[in-house]
Specification:
Number of domains: 3
GO cellular component, one term: membrane
CATH class of the largest domain: Alpha Beta
Protein name: Class I SAM-dependent RNA methyltransferase
Shape: globular
CATH topology of the largest domain: Rossmann fold
GO molecular function, one term: growth factor activity
CATH architecture of the largest domain: 3-Layer(aba) Sandwich
Mean pLDDT: 95
Largest sheet: 8 strands, mixed
Strand order of the largest sheet: 8-21-22-20-19-16-17-18
CATH superfamily of the largest domain: Vaccinia Virus protein VP39
Distance between the termini: 58 Å
Helix content: 10-25%
Organism: Candidatus Mcinerneyibacterium aminivorans
Keywords: Methyltransferase, S-adenosyl-L-methionine, Transferase
């Protein structure tokens, strides 16, 4: 095997580090800035990569033994070989470089057994995940990021039935246990409300309904603190506000958590299953139905309706805000905006396009420890 020596110079994208070998830039996994390593270099789509370190010549002081026995083969994590303090440094630097300032705080998480949801592929008698640079499936009996309940389900149900099934399995953890759906390969993952599987989840005094077919934050440990901070960011304003608009409202988690702060809340969401579960939560909690104006709309295809509401709440998917939403915000007059994003790059892109608003403050909520993902929670105020 032809091994090349590389000097790791910087942090790169998507969990990679930037290595230099023979004056060439290499995307390197499982290393750290300042290390000198030897590994196998290969080309993919015109770029150079190394995902197989064979020798560490100069070692980072932050390097530790990974908790997971599948770590160097599974594509789920990228920082298990480093201390959590180093992971914090990396994520904070990424945010600071794009946003121009440090966060108000870095909210730490449990780093293992924190996930309340799982998505696994099942095929050819294997159940697991794909390595970062390979299409082949790794058979996994336990994921260190998952809760004990989900890992037990992985062992008892998914691994036991992998011989008879080919497709994808999605699992969420509700207050009573496991809710799962098995999606056969080549069949649509769309599910009607009549066939929807869901469960109940209580956070403080609020009740939500969650499903493998709808979005709910995966971090069991940080989720309540994130919601409390959203409420705090609204309450810290001196003026009292009567109304709010939430785009990408999902099953209603944010709107229902802060509903006592407003007389009227408009929620916009495209997923019919999410809307069904939102209505179910309103009924279960006995909330005033007339307070909520719930609208079904595809926000990537259509613009929100004109709004004279006071506060805007945004929690979009990784793709961020569409051009139509940016245009809508620039024509509106919200007093301030609460914007939470799981993609710091699209977040930075979006806020630069908002003509009336500037970043007042932001927090890092590490919803996805041991991976390169993290959540930005921010308040935007009028310039």
């Amino acid at each position: 095997m032809n091994l090349k020596k590389m000097k790791i110079k910087d942090i790169n994208k998507r969990g990679f580090f930037k290595g230099i070998s023979d004056e060439r830039n290499i995307n390197v996994l499982y290393t750290d800035v300042g290390e000198i390593v030897k590994g196998r270099i290969f080309t993919k789509k015109g770029k150079l990569y190394c995902d197989d370190i064979k020798e560490i010549i100069q070692k980072s002081k932050h390097r530790i033994k990974p908790e997971c026995k599948y770590y160097y083969r599974c594509g789920g994590c990228c920082y298990q070989h480093l201390t959590y303090e180093r992971e914090k440094q990396i994520k904070t630097k990424k945010a600071k470089d794009l946003l121009g300032g440090l966060p108000e705080a870095f909210e730490f998480s449990k780093i293992y057994n924190y996930r309340n949801s799982l998505e696994f592929d099942v095929t050819k008698n294997k159940a697991g995940m794909h390595p970062r640079m390979s299409p082949f499936l790794i058979n996994i009996n336990k994921c260190e990021l998952m809760t004990d309940e989900i890992n037990q389900h992985l062992k008892d149900a998914i691994q036991e039935n992998k011989k008879e099934f080919d497709g994808e399995v999605r699992v969420v953890l509700d207050d009573n246990g496991i809710v799962s759906r098995w999606y056969p390969k080549y069949e649509s993952k769309e599910t009607s409300i009549a066939n929807l599987k869901y469960g109940k989840k209580k956070l403080n005094s609020k009740v939500f309904y969650i499903s493998p077919d709808t979005f709910f934050q995966a971090n069991e440990y940080l989720y309540p603190r994130w919601l409390e901070k959203i409420k705090f960011l609204i309450q810290e304003e001196k003026d009292r506000f009567n109304s709010a608009l939430e785009l990408f409202s999902g099953v209603g988690t944010i709107s229902f958590y802060v509903e006592e702060l407003f007389k009227k809340i408009r929620m916009v969401e495209n997923n019919e299953n999410s809307l069904f579960l939102a209505y179910k939560a309103i009924e279960k909690m006995g909330l005033e139905k007339d307070k909520f104006d719930i609208i079904k709309k595809d926000l990537f295809q259509e613009s929100p309706s004109e709004s004279d509401l006071d506060v805007l709440i945004l929690n979009p998917p990784r793709a961020g805000l569409s051009k139509k939403i940016i245009k809508f915000i620039n024509k509106s007059s919200f007093k301030f905006i609460i914007y939470s994003s799981c993609n710091y790059k699209t977040f930075a892109r979006d806020i630069k396009k908002l003509e009336q608003y500037e970043l007042d403050k932001y927090y890092i909520y590490d919803m996805f420890p041991r991976t390169y993902h993290f959540e930005i929670l921010s308040k935007l105020k009028k310039e």
